[in-house]
C-alpha cells in the first residue's frame, strides 16, 4: 500500500458500510507515516457531510489511524485539556491522496481526566440491521472496542501522556 509522505496534506474520507460517503475532512497534514500508522494534524479544517452541509473544526486536532486496528482516534487540544473522539471503524487505506475508512457508528468520547462514555449504540444497531453487517464484522468491532477501552484505561498508545502534545508540536513545526 502506498503511504503518504510526512508534511503531505491529505483528505480524510469516512464511508458507511454500504459504500456511501459519510464525511470528508478537507485538509490534514501528515506528521508521521509508516506501513501501519498515519498520524496527522489539522486545525480549523472544512468538513463536508454526506448531505453537502459544511462546518469547520474548532480546535487543533491530532488524528491517529492504523492499518490493522478497527478504530481511529482524534485528540482535540482544548483549553481544559485533551478531549478524544474515537471512531470504531475499519482500518484505513490510503488512496488517491485520501485516508479512507468505513465508520461503524460506535464511538467513544474521552475526557481530559480519561473518563469516557460510549456513544451511538442505537445508531449501530439500526445500521447493522439496515446494511446487514455480517456477524464476523460485529465480532471484530466488539473485540476492537474492548481493546480500545483497555488502551484508554491503561493510557497507552494514542492515550499515552504527552502523545498528542508531541505530535501537535511536530504539526506546528511543519505548518510554519
UniProtKB/TrEMBL annotation:
Cofactor requirement: Mg(2+)
Residues that, per the record, bind Mg(2+) 2: 105, 107, 120, 123
Residues that hold Mg(2+) 1 according to the record: 87, 103, 107
One Pfam family recorded for the sequence: DUF402
Active site: 23 (proton donor)
Molecular-function GO term, any one: ribonucleoside triphosphate phosphatase activity
Catalytic activity: a ribonucleoside 5'-diphosphate + H2O = a ribonucleoside 5'-phosphate + phosphate + H(+); a ribonucleoside 5'-triphosphate + H2O = a ribonucleoside 5'-diphosphate + phosphate + H(+)
Documented EC number(s): 3.6.1.15, 3.6.1.6
Record carries keyword Magnesium: yes
Residues forming coiled coils: none
Superkingdom: Bacteria
The entry's keywords: Hydrolase, Magnesium, Metal-binding
Domain DUF402: 18-156
Assigned protein family: Belongs to the Ntdp family.
Task performed by this protein: Has nucleoside phosphatase activity towards nucleoside triphosphates and nucleoside diphosphates.
Protein known as: Nucleoside triphosphate/diphosphate phosphatase
Organism: Domibacillus iocasae
Amino acid at each position: 500500500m502506498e503511504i503518504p509522505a510526512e508534511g503531505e496534506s491529505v483528505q480524510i474520507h469516512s464511508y458507511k458500510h454500504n459504500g456511501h460517503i459519510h464525511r470528508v475532512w478537507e485538509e490534514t497534514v501528515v506528521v508521521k507515516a509508516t506501513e501501519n500508522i498515519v498520524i496527522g494534524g489539522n486545525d480549523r479544517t472544512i468538513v463536508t457531510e454526506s448531505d453537502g452541509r459544511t462546518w469547520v473544526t474548532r480546535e487543533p486536532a491530532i488524528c491517529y489511524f492504523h492499518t490493522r486496528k478497527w478504530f481511529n482516534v482524534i485528540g482535540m487540544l482544548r483549553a481544559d485539556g485533551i478531549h478524544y473522539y474515537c471512531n470504531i471503524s475499519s482500518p484505513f487505506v490510503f488512496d488517491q491522496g485520501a485516508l479512507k475508512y468505513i465508520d461503524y457508528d460506535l464511538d467513544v468520547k474521552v475526557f481530559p481526566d480519561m473518563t469516557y462514555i460510549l456513544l451511538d449504540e442505537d445508531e449501530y444497531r439500526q445500521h447493522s440491521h439496515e446494511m446487514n453487517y455480517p456477524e464476523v464484522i460485529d465480532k471484530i468491532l466488539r473485540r476492537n472496542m474492548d481493546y480500545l477501552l483497555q488502551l484508554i484505561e491503561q493510557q497507552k498508545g494514542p492515550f499515552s501522556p504527552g502523545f498528542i502534545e508531541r505530535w501537535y508540536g511536530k504539526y506546528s513545526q511543519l505548518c510554519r
